[in-house]
Amino acid sequence: MTAEAGLPDTLRDLPGWAPDAVELADLELLLAGVYRPLTGFLGSFDAAMVIAGGRLADGTPWPVPVTLAVPKELTAHERLVLQDPEGVPLAVLKVAEAWQDPTSQGWRLAGPLEPLRSPAHGPFHSLRRRPDELDPVDGPVLAVAAREPLHRKQLGQIRQVAEQLGAGVLVLPLLSGEHDESLVRALLSVRKELPDGTRIIPVPLPSRGDHERDLLLRAHVAAAYGASHLLAEQEAEGTAVPVVVPEPWAYDADVEIWRPVARIEPDHVQAELTPERLGELLDAGEPVPDWFTPPGVAAELARARPPKHSRGITVFFTGLSGSGKSTVARGLADALVERGGRTVTLLDGDVVRRMLSAGLTFSKADRDLNIRRIGFVAAEITRHGGVAICAPIAPYAATRAEVRRMVAAAGDFILVHVSTPLEECERRDRKGLYAKARAGQIPEFTGISDPYEVPEDADLALDTSAMTPDEAVGRVLELLVAGGWVAPE
């Protein structure tokens, strides 16, 4: 964790740290001045006050705790170089406080930031701007903070509200790390359908999982970029700029246009395309109707969510040693190759240990690292439309959930629990591992001296003591065919 590349000589000996995705977004917005009056990451008292009442310790309204998590060993340093995921140094944190989060017990560092360079990671970075880089706009500005593409209804509502306010429009694509490129392309494709002079400025702002606080933060970001109003689906109090809720719109099937519901005869209102129905169309590879969204947006939706039969997927087997994971996983890989039509990669636990994770021990930390490596490779295979079949023990629920998140950002994830009882796994033990574990010769052995956390989110459970390997493979294939990922024979 030593920071070296691209640093002045006076900073080369400082430790370095790459924040997670949310913290990295916060860092970029802190350095850009978007989070003013904040100049760095919050300390324990400010963070507690924000969580409890939405205000900093000095009474300034602030919606979310902006904190930096670090390993305990970094809390002894007075300065820390913060880097992007590629190791490029972005800023120096002058540590004012090291504190422990009372909920997670994780360590946090607080203090002001000294910028080193502007962040340059992420898609469409050339479109990003600091607020102080924008030319001022005369008159009101309506901000639209978008996590999803804008369809014909939203485009009409934006035009209506902008006309009512006499305002220009500022679209802020909120980047979250999932399909960011597709979101920006979709918004750029409809710029011609928005008022002249509309500006599109991507902003790294992942959701915090709290709708009300997310809205308050979006309003603050909009205000920092010069907006006078924020378009949103619900009203809110205490926002940095007024929130405008648009009038309800619907598709008038009689004249085939979108317009305010109040102007449509009730029997002419066409039912809106729900997110669930939209997902079904994309999964099946069917066209998205033009009355719902412009062609450019439809193309980006299809690119971000390909049909299931060509979409990348990871089938992740988990279970005790000797449960039959490798046998079923290998049988599934062979069956898919025999059927054809998909690129298949088998990431068996033992093979991965030799090739990808050589040198790792069987400590909990190293086992978790081994699973993360498998998850990373599986996510990349999935991202490129392949089928990744993984068969590690993966005993810990939190690590399996981490892999699910990695893969889900790229495609689909199926968890198969090979639930063969421990007694049967021991009976099959050709390597004598269970006997050695019971004799104390192998420490931290899953199922004996270390726990196996049974999945509560498995898509399928297979007890190979009650079925043949071919039957187990058939059960997985049935699931993949029913889900649309594999074509029926």
UniProtKB/TrEMBL annotation:
InterPro entries: APS (IPR002891), APS_kinase_dom (IPR059117), ATP-Sase_PUA-like_dom (IPR025980), P-loop_NTPase (IPR027417), PUA-like_sf (IPR015947), Rossmann-like_a/b/a_fold (IPR014729), Sulf_AdTrans/APS_kinase (IPR050512). GO terms for molecular function: adenylylsulfate kinase activity. The gene is cysC. It is an enzyme of class 2 (transferase). Catalyzes the synthesis of activated sulfate. SUPFAM superfamilies: Nucleotidylyl transferase, P-loop containing nucleoside triphosphate hydrolases, PUA domain-like. This is Adenylyl-sulfate kinase. It catalyses: adenosine 5'-phosphosulfate + ATP = 3'-phosphoadenylyl sulfate + ADP + H(+). Pfam families: APS_kinase, PUA_2.
